[in-house]
Write a structure and sequence with these properties.
With about 375 residues, the chain is an alpha/beta fold. It folds into 2 domains: about 15-150, Orthogonal Bundle (Arc Repressor Mutant, subunit A); about 160-375, Dna Topoisomerase Vi A Subunit, Chain: A, domain 2. The chain has 15 helices and 15 strands. It has helices spanning about 1-45, 90-110, 115-120, 125, 130-145, 210-215, 220-225, 235-250, 260-275, 280-285, 300, 315-325, 330, 335-345, 365-375, and strands at about 55-60, 80-85, 115, 155, 160-165, 165-170, 170-175, 185, 195-200, 200-205, 225-230, 255, 290-295, 310, 350. The strands form 5 sheets. A 6-stranded mixed β-sheet has the order 8-5-11-10-12-13, with helices on both faces. A 3-stranded antiparallel β-sheet has the order 7-6-9, covered by helices on one side. The protein has a two-stranded antiparallel sheet with strand order 1-2. A hairpin with a 2-residue loop joins β6 and β7. α12 (about 315-325) packs antiparallel against α14. One of its GO terms (biological process) is meiotic DNA double-strand break formation.
Length: about 375
């Protein structure tokens, strides 16, 4: 009987895998068709001695309008950029885009993957800088109305996960449950993740690897039945997509713990609202359900952070905060976040998460985080 059940489960998993591969293949064929249509249109114009006009939609994830007259973070473009062969800068940009498009076409045809860095090194003397390739990939995604992973262009994974979760990526099983406080790398091919099983009560996202390791050392996941994720600074695309996938599938609360400084706050907003660079793909990357757990500027008094742990804001910090205060989503969607950010500017100081451990080494895991979650001290 047991053997029969195992065979049935194996058959179901194989069926899901084949269905996933079939859908991926269909998407690849559709994308290849779009590439052919685009390049053929260029060739027809050039053959007829017409200067091709390329319209690229432009998206934003925030602006400085405080009213409702913006479409930031939506699926709607905020305008179009016109590329022609009349401008030298446009010619250069189109040249790079077409070179990258040829590489993407080959990746799709051969069902292979490549990193942005790999693509850069295929023509380093032409591209000159990695940012040029990044810009071209974003332009291609907008033109083809797809996400970066649809191009078979992947990011090098930086994210870590541990806790009460088990899932399958391709043919690899990630069993975090058997050892919940052991770190596992977040898979690069998030679209291939399936069979997610979890007994977690919530998801905790932490900014830094040092805090992630503190939680692991204190066996935080085992004691609190949770999942902990870290993007190790500004999160890469796989980490953001993985978090969104978990929130959508598990339907449990998600909290974010970052340093009490403008860069920590910016990382928090990247998780919840997306980034300007990837604004065209915000709908697949943002996690609007995430709550800010800390560290708040007001926590310095609430948790008696010593003065020697409070660092003065630099001129650059102040400029960054002032610019962030104008973001439309802070004014309309999370005014409480804006009040805390304003308090940071008024106090003129910042502090790291680790400053909370000045009382005891395990203060963060035994007191701070549990009190925030169970006392609902999050926004």
């Amino acid at each position: 009987m047991k053997l029969k059940l195992e065979e049935e489960d194996s058959g179901k998993m194989e069926g899901k895998r084949k269905k996933l591969e079939s859908k991926k293949s269909e998407n690849g064929i559709l994308l290849l068709d779009k590439i052919k249509v685009f390049t053929r249109s260029l060739l027809v114009n050039l053959t007829n001695r017409k200067s091709p006009i390329i319209l690229i939609d432009r998206f934003k994830n925030h602006c400085t309008l405080s009213d409702s007259n913006c479409f930031c973070g939506s699926d709607l473009p905020v305008g179009k950029e016109v590329l022609t062969l009349c401008k030298e800068t446009h010619v250069r940009r189109l040249d790079v885009m077409l070179r990258v498009l040829v590489i993407v076409q080959k990746l799709l045809q051969e069902n292979k993957h490549s990193s942005k860095r790999d693509i850069y090194y295929m023509h380093p003397s032409v591209f000159l800088d990695q940012s040029v390739v990044d810009h071209a990939i974003n332009d291609i995604c907008v033109l083809m109305q797809c996400s970066r992973h649809n191009l078979n262009v992947v990011s090098a994974g930086n994210g870590l996960v541990m806790g009460w979760i088990r899932f399958v990526e391709g043919k690899k099983i990630f069993d975090c449950i058997s050892s919940p406080d052991t770190a596992h790398p977040i898979p690069v091919y998030v679209e291939e993740i399936k069979d997610i099983v979890s007994a977690a009560r919530y998801i905790l996202v932490v900014e830094k690897e040092s805090v992630f390791q503190r939680l692991a050392n204190d066996q935080f996941c085992k004691s609190n039945h949770c999942i902990v994720i870290s993007g190790r600074g500004y999160p890469d695309i796989p980490t953001r997509r993985f978090l969104r996938l978990l929130v959508e599938n598990l339907h449990i609360p998600a909290y974010c713990l970052v340093d009490c400084d403008p860069y920590g706050f910016d990382i928090l907003t990247t998780y919840r609202f997306g980034s300007m660079q990837m604004a065209y793909d915000t709908k697949h990357l943002r996690v609007p359900e995430i709550h800010w757990l800390g560290a708040f500027p007001s926590d310095s008094e609430r948790y008696f952070v010593p003065k020697q742990c409070l660092l003065p804001l630099t001129a650059e910090d102040k400029r960054k905060i002032e610019a962030m205060l104008l973001r439309c989503y802070l004014q309309r969607e999370v005014p409480q976040w804006r009040l805390e950010l304003k308090m940071m500017l008024q106090k003129g100081v910042k502090f790291e998460i680790e400053a909370l451990s000045v009382h005891t080494l395990s203060f963060l895991t035994e007191s701070y985080i549990p009190s925030k979650i169970h006392g609902k001290v999050q926004i």
